[in-house]
């Protein structure tokens, strides 16, 4: 930890206090990240997808380096078409609770590896040009990587290219020298290479406009547009470091030609060399928000080789309280850092690089020294009588995986909703197809699947999907509308209807619905119940030829349509095909009846194939629900645990 080969300084306070031996501390505390995928399910993670309709993504370099399998991710949340086809964007109210869900392939919270999960977000104050990428027409997947040169003629297509980080951010990364005090194992990365080159990315490959050094290490020591939400770590003794060094609260420095030059970066990555070479070490203010929360990764315990649930029976998750950071365009990022215990990833630095590295590429468990090999060049003999090979890739023994959401909006609450009122987001995760077809994404489900609220709290019922999924046959998914007037079925649609109990697969009569009651009369709130069941389809409306926009299944069959064609026909509003886009906003619904309420999606819930069901428990409501909705002692205990856990 006392190596002299460290040239990175790190700012610790707004009065420009510089630690001269920064890397001795920084490298002891930075996350160096091994082999595993991570996929975000709520909000929908792209895994670098956009509007391609194939099983695998088109371009793994589109926006960021996920390191994930190309089959993962969810297609763009929009109806088919170019810029003229507008699909509303998901939005979340400030102060509301958003359940963020993801799965990671390898262990977390076990003794098999170090695991750290970092949740962050960024909005247009970090890049005014932030965007998902909009197809130019109905046949365009819009999956090309944004040109680095903003003057490139192709860049004139503007919104077609997705972009998270800014041109200036990547330019500064490509100009700035990498942190040469970092541990590289035996990866040959030049000391003078820029910050696009890391142990994980020694060739400096470009993925969108992200900075590889920032992607691979946390907390980063230079300015970043990402705001930190939460950290789950194997070593909670480091939580204080993560909190104090987050740019949420700590300013960060960068070398510029002058104080006034915002975009002209110089290569020096520390204040001393910057000033000695005629530059100005410019400090960039903190984000001015609270430090990230920090938890033990044991809360997310998952086994190896398993893209599944934690020991609690649910996907890895975190309840994010949406900040009062009002923006039209924001993106959420989850980073999964997994490291081997073959060395201490928190203290090893450049003094153990290359020949001195404790790990080597495809390292052997040594056997007897072969003839002609000098003892100092042989691996230590472990006594088995013959060497055995280890599967070691040293640029993966510390590795970062990530996924990012599509853009969403953070809104102010409506004026008539108190700032102290609790709002819980109720969403839908998953995509069209059976469990094998959707993997490593998931089938349809409500998020959260189980929720506990108090009487008077609000649900913001809202979901989205995509009309760009791979084509699925009737046994693998339900309904339409058909894709581009073909017989292909690619669309996601969902609704919400109350059931008597979760073992059933049919809806209650509307007069018996107790989940949504009028807060004054205590009677079923029929307008809300119908809206959630029929999702704003044009029932009762006609087209320019005075033909109904919605028809029953039997009416479609009488017109000569086959069973499959009738089920996918855009006029089959019983299958929710009349909804023009996969987005639905049920708005804020106040929960006023006590009870345990079970609900499902009539379109997607298909017994023995897939289950799309949920449950909400309302405590201390203003009205008593039906007798079968009484809350059992076990449910009540779970409700208390959830209420106090903070993470679920």
In short:
By secondary structure, the chain is of the alpha+beta class.
What features would you highlight for this structure?
648 residues, alpha+beta, seven-stranded mixed β-sheet, five-stranded mixed β-sheet, 10 helices, 23 strands, 11% helix, 20% strand, globular, disordered C terminus
Give an overview in words:
- By secondary structure, the protein is α+β, with helices and mostly antiparallel strands.
- It has helices spanning 22-29, 167-175, 212-216, 239-245, 271-276, 435-438, 526-534, 553-558, 563-568, 633-645; strands at residues 38-42, 91-93, 97-104, 114-123, 227-233, 252-256, 280-284, 293-296, 316-321, 327-339, 364-365, 388-389, 398-404, 408-411, 423-429, 445-447, 450-454, 458-463, 497-499, 584-590, 593-600, 613-619, 623-624.
- The longest helix is centred in the C-terminal third of the chain and has 13 residues, at 633-645.
- Mean pLDDT is 87; it is low at 1-35, 626-634 and 642-648.
- The protein is built from 10 helices and 23 strands.
- Helices cover 11% and strands 20% of the residues.
- It is globular and about 85 Å long.
- Strands 2, 4, 5, 8, 10, 13 and 14 form a 7-stranded mixed β-sheet that branches.
- It starts with 21 loop residues before the first helix and ends with a helix.
